[in-house]
TrEMBL record:
Claim: Transport is one of the keywords in the record: yes
UniProt gene name: SLC27A6
Name of the protein this chain belongs to: long-chain-fatty-acid--CoA ligase
Gene3D superfamilies listed in its UniProt record: 3.30.300.30, N-terminal domain of ligase-like
Keyword check for Ribonucleoprotein: no
C-alpha cells in the first residue's frame, strides 16, 4: 500500500503540491501586506473616504427617488413618523424639562388647529416667526408646516428698518412673535398693521391693540392632527423656509430653503456617524441654518434627543453636558474659543461628548480644545445658507473644512479660480474666462449650477439672485454660484478656508453686510463718506467691524452721536468697533472703495498716522484709540 505522502495529485507528488500551495499562500500574503502598506502610504484615507462616499451616495439616492416620483417625504413627515414610532422617547430637553416626540407633535397640532380654525393662514402662504430658542419655536414651526405654510425665521437681533424689510421681501402676511420679543416690535407695529400683517403673540393676555393672543387658544385647542394633505408636496423644490442672511446689498436677504436643502442638511449628523442613541446639544439660535436644519432636522433624521439652550453659556456648557449625558454638540468657532478661555477645572474631561459638529474652528483653538477636554472628534463642515455645495471634514484633519477625494469631485462640480485681492475682482484671461489656481494656491470658490447642485436664490428680488451668479466662467453660457470665499486645496485634497472677499465679513458667528453699516453711517451729518470692513483681532474668530470715514468740511467727529445711532439701529455684531478718520478715500480703477490695504493695516495706533477711535460701552461713546487702549484689546483685558 503506497504511503499517502507519496500519492500523486494531478500528476504531481503531494510534496510538490504542498510546496506550491505554501509558495502561493506566501505570495498572496506578501501581496496583501504590500497592498496594505501602499494604501497606507499613498492612499491613507481610502477606507474613510469609501465609507463616507457610500453614505453620500446612499442618502443621495433616496433624495433622487423623491425627485423622480411624487412620493416626497419631508422633514416634517419624518418627525410625524418618529412620533408614531417612538412617542415616549425624549425629543427635546429645555431648561431641565423633557418633551417627548408625542408631546411636541401634539403641541404643534394644537398650533395648526388654532390658526386653521381662525382662518389665519392658507396652504402655500408665508408666515414670519420671531422667537428666541424655546420649545414653542419648534411647535409653531412644525404647526405651520403641517398647514402647508412656508416659515420665515427672523433674526432676533435685527432692528426696525431691517425687520420691516424682511416682511416685504418674503411676502409674509402673518407674524408669530415670542412672549419676550413683543415689546421690541412696539415701534413698528403700526407699520405692520398698515401693511395688513396680522400679529399673533405667544401670550394669554395682551395690552397691544390689534395683536392676537395665541397661547390661550393653543392650550384650549384639540391635539388631533390636521389633514395630512395640507402639508403634502409633490416637488422637493417647493419652498419650506426662508432664512435671512446678510449680504452685499445692505439689508437682510431671504434665502429660499426648499425641501431638498432641508433634507440634505438633516442628513449631516447621520453622515458623521450619529445614531438614535445620541444626545445633541444645541446652544445656537434656531433662526440659523445650523441649529434648525442640521440640529433639529438631524435629531429627527436620527430619531435622537436634542438639548436646546435658550442662549449659549460657556460656564454652564460642560455641566449641561454631564447633566444630560450629551454625546454630540453643535458649535461655531467663537463658541469653542469661549470654552477654552474658561478657567481650567479638574473634571473638564469628565463627560460623554464624543463629537462636535460645526464650522469656523481655528487650528489653535482646535488643539487647545483637545488638550483641555479630551480627544473629541471635531467635525468641521462648510456651506452657506443659500449655497449649492457643502464640504465635510469627515477625516477630522485639524484646520480643514472639508475633503474632496476623486469620487466626490465627480459628484460636486466646484472650482477655485484666481482672484485679485488688491483690485478686489476676479481674474479673467484674454478670452474673458476665469483661470484655475494651482493646487496649494488660494482661489475664489465657485460651484457649478446644475440639476445635482441647484441654486434657489433669494425671495422678492431677482437681482439679488443674479448677483450671486457668475456667468461665462470657463465656457460661454455656463453659470456658477459665487461663494465669496477664498479657499485653498492642499496636496491631500483637504479644503481650507482662508478669507472672505467683497462686502461681507463674519463677526460673533454672524455675517455683517458692510453696505448696511455704510448706509447707516451716511445718515450722520458729520460723515461725508464711509468705508466699512473687518479687521483681525488677536484671539478672536472672524473680523471685527471697522470704518474708515471722511468727516464733512466744517464738521467735527462726534463719538457720542455715532454711538447712539449704531446702538439704536444695528445689531451688536454689526456695530463698528473701530473708526479711522481719513482725509481722502482710496478707490480702485473701477471706482470701488479700496478695502484691501485698510484691512491689512489693521487698527494699531503705533503704525497708523490717521486718528483712530474705539467704541466704549461704559462711556457710551467712541473714544480715542490710544496705545494703552490698543494693548488692553490685544491682551484680552478688554472684552469685545
Amino acid at each position: 500500500m503506497a504511503h499517502w505522502r507519496t500519492r500523486p495529485f494531478h500528476g504531481l507528488p503531494v510534496q510538490q503540491v504542498m510546496l506550491f500551495s505554501l509558495t502561493w499562500l506566501t505570495s498572496l500574503l506578501a501581496g496583501i501586506v504590500f497592498a496594505h502598506i501602499t494604501q497606507r502610504l499613498c492612499f491613507p484615507y481610502f477606507w474613510k473616504d469609501l465609507v463616507y462616499l457610500i453614505k453620500v451616495i446612499r442618502y443621495g439616492a433616496r433624495l433622487e427617488f423623491y425627485k423622480r416620483t411624487s412620493k416626497v417625504l419631508t422633514v416634517i413627515d419624518r418627525f410625524v413618523q418618529e412620533a408614531r414610532r417612538s412617542p415616549n422617547k425624549p425629543f427635546l430637553i429645555y431648561e431641565g424639562i423633557t418633551y417627548t416626540y408625542k408631546e411636541i407633535d401634539e403641541r404643534s397640532n394644537k398650533v395648526a388647529q388654532v390658526l386653521d380654525q381662525y382662518g389665519a393662514v392658507k396652504k402655500g402662504v408665508t408666515v414670519a416667526l420671531l422667537m428666541n430658542n424655546e420649545p414653542d419655536f419648534i411647535s409653531v414651526w412644525f404647526g405651520l408646516s403641517k398647514l402647508g405654510c412656508a416659515v420665515a425665521f427672523l433674526n432676533t437681533n435685527i432692528k426696525s428698518r431691517s425687520l420691516l424689510h424682511c416682511f416685504n421681501c418674503c411676502g409674509a402676511k402673518l407674524l408669530v412673535v415670542g412672549t419676550d420679543l413683543l415689546d421690541s416690535l412696539e415701534e413698528i407695529l403700526p407699520n405692520l398693521q398698515e401693511d395688513n400683517i396680522s400679529v399673533w403673540a405667544m401670550k394669554k393676555q395682551i395690552s397691544h391693540p390689534g395683536v392676537h393672543t395665541l397661547l390661550d387658544k393653543v392650550e384650549q385647542a384639540s391635539h388631533e392632527p390636521v389633514a395630512a394633505e395640507r402639508r403634502t408636496v409633490t416637488s422637493l423644490k417647493t419652498a419650506t423656509l426662508y432664512i435671512f442672511t446678510s449680504g452685499t446689498t445692505g439689508l437682510p436677504k431671504a434665502a429660499v430653503i426648499c425641501h431638498l436643502q432641508s433634507l440634505k442638511a438633516a442628513g449631516g449628523l447621520w453622515a458623521y456617524g450619529g445614531t438614535s442613541e445620541d444626545v445633541i446639544y444645541t446652544p445656537l439660535p434656531l433662526y440659523h441654518t445650523a441649529a434648525s436644519l442640521i440640529g433639529i432636522g438631524g435629531t429627527i433624521e436620527l430619531g435622537a434627543t436634542c438639548v436646546l439652550k435658550k442662549k449659549f453659556s460657556a460656564s454652564q456648557f460642560w455641566n449641561d453636558c454631564r447633566k444630560y449625558d450629551v454625546t454630540i454638540f453643535q458649535y461655531i468657532g467663537e463658541l469653542c474659543r469661549y470654552l477654552c478661555n474658561q478657567p481650567e477645572a479638574e473634571n473638564e474631561k469628565d463627560h460623554k461628548v464624543r463629537m462636535g459638529v460645526g464650522n469656523g474652528l481655528r487650528p489653535d483653538v482646535w488643539k487647545e480644545l483637545h488638550r483641555r477636554f479630551g480627544e473629541i472628534r471635531m467635525c468641521e463642515f462648510y456651506g452657506s445658507t443659500e449655497g449649492n455645495l457643502c464640504f465635510m471634514n469627515h477625516i477630522g484633519k485639524i484646520g480643514a473644512v472639508g475633503r474632496c477625494n476623486f469620487f466626490y469631485k465627480l459628484l460636486l462640480k466646484y472650482n477655485l479660480v484666481q482672484y485679485d485681492m488688491v483690485k478686489d475682482e476676479i481674474v479673467r484671461n484674454e478670452k474673458g474666462f476665469c483661470e484655475h489656481v494651482k493646487q496649494g494656491e488660494t482661489g475664489l470658490l465657485l460651484c457649478k449650477i446644475n440639476s445635482q447642485s441647484p441654486f434657489f436664490g433669494y425671495a422678492g428680488n431677482k437681482e439679488l439672485t443674479e448677483n450671486k451668479l457668475l456667468r461665462n466662467v470657463f465656457v460661454k453660457g455656463d453659470a456658477y454660484f459665487n461663494t465669496g470665499d477664498l479657499m485653498v486645496e492642499d496636496q491631500e485634497d483637504f479644503i481650507c478656508f482662508k478669507d472672505r472677499v467683497g462686502d461681507t465679513f463674519r463677526w460673533k458667528g454672524e455675517n455683517v453686510a458692510t453696505t448696511e453699516v455704510t448706509e447707516l453711517l451716511g445718515l450722520l451729518d458729520f460723515i461725508q463718506e464711509a468705508n466699512v470692513y473687518g479687521v483681525e483681532v488677536p484671539g478672536h474668530e472672524g473680523r471685527a467691524g471697522m470704518a474708515a470715514v471722511i468727516v464733512r468740511p466744517g464738521c467735527s467727529f462726534d463719538g457720542k452721536k455715532l454711538f447712539n445711532i449704531t446702538t439704536a439701529y444695528l445689531p451688536s455684531y454689526a456695530r463698528p468697533l473701530f473708526i479711522r478718520i481719513q482725509e481722502t478715500m482710496e478707490i480702485t480703477g473701477t471706482f470701488k472703495q479700496q478695502k484691501f490695504r485698510l484691512v491689512r493695516s489693521g487698527f494699531n495706533p503705533s503704525t497708523i498716522t490717521d486718528p483712530l477711535y474705539f467704541v466704549d460701552y461704559n462711556e457710551q461713546c467712541y473714544i480715542p484709540l490710544t496705545d494703552s487702549v490698543y494693548e488692553s484689546i490685544v491682551s484680552g483685558q478688554r472684552k469685545l
